[in-house]
Amino acid sequence: MRSLTGSRLDWAAALLLVLATGAHAIPAFRRPVATLDEIIVLDYPDVVSRGATPNVDFYTAYARLGYDFLGVWYRVLGYTLTSERLAGLLYQVAVVVGVWALTRRFGDRIAIGSGLLCIVLMPTDLTAFAWLGGLALAVWSLVLVRSEAGRLSWMVGGLLAGLSVGWRYEMTLVVGLALLPFIWRHPRAPFVVMGGLAGFMPTALHLLDVGGAAWDNVSGRMGVNFQLEASSVPVHVYLGLAVGSTALAGIAARAFMCRTREDWAWVLVCLAVLPQALQRIDVYHFGFAAVVIYPLAFAAGMDLARRWTDRLHVRLVASALAILLTVPALFLVGWVVTASTRFETQSIASGSRTITVRADRAEATQALLDDVRDVVPPGSDLFVGTDQMGRTSFNSFPIYYLLSEDYRFPSYYLELAAGVAERDRSGLSDDIRSADALILATFDPEVGDRLFPFAPKGFTEHNQTVREHFEQVSTHGALTLYVRRS
Which of 88, 93, 370, 413 is 20 to 30 Å from 131 at the Cα level? Predict the structure, then answer.
């Protein structure tokens, strides 16, 4: 009877966290598409499903399996913004329930508290970030690879670890460090290794197919990572980084005290995800690391409070936990503010596809789409960029999604890869010259200075190519249509 009751409580707790994650995500479904990240996870899986090879046919710094997964997801649920966001919700739920399962060894209350902390620190939108997909697989690999688990569990855990690298190459570091305590001098280590090699096999085959192109793509983006304009970063992100880094000390303290493989794995996985918060210091990247570090630190701290019975140590742990919880509290306030903000949105359509955008963009975007269909013959090659391609810039309009049914987008730079595409002789001018028409968005230089303060600028090749080979047809709001000179 006890085991049956325990099983029911486990299912109830997991369901509670799933429902809480869904409730946290509800406001995000109402928001318009507005970020380049969401446009990428809408566009790239469709490009791959049409036969393109990442790193060869188009630039990307991410691994292939995540695109393959979303491509299948879109074929099943439909190629829509809603289905993309459902994939993002799936990633978030998998991380949250995985963190809960990881902390269950400390008891139901601590595990549920850890899961709720994870929810609060999640990004407030539902973009199907490759990082969250890979992180979900990495967390569940740790759930399955436990000291008391059997061989099959260890092998499946290794399989998930290997698959995670197919979402983000950085997961090699995360799962490599996290599973190291279980691999080191353990009789079941070969089962983790075998599962890991099997999971990594699709990514290995892709890397062999593309050669050094994958490394070139990834290394090219390193030039714009770890950049920071201090004044543009919210104060609670600085506080979160300071508290989160200090929280690692609590996890490490428990590891030194208990000396179990699980505890050392927690320390190493937190160290491995911390660089994600530092590569671009903003709310999103902080959350990508905090959803692991904070819940595990909370669970470790609560367990230490139970182990230490003297008043001094209890007060010390209680104070540390109070400081730790201030950051999720600030994020909860931010979520409430965001959830209560009303977004003026409007749907625009092109062919059989419809998408929701900001109302102030809708009329201009729809007018430009109509001009493209009037002026540019179906089947023509289109290029999407900005009016400032001599510096790091981006076009956050969903042009590919709305026009790819009837037009081709053969560009290597489907999006203007920051720190790479803007450089002279990057190949971007070849993309421009080969196009039949261009759709360029006005880009605010102040945005580029804030997001990429140290990125190189002042290149002239690409903008010169536009002037030499194309003529302006029409302008609607921030969008301008160019066609090749006759």
Answer: 413
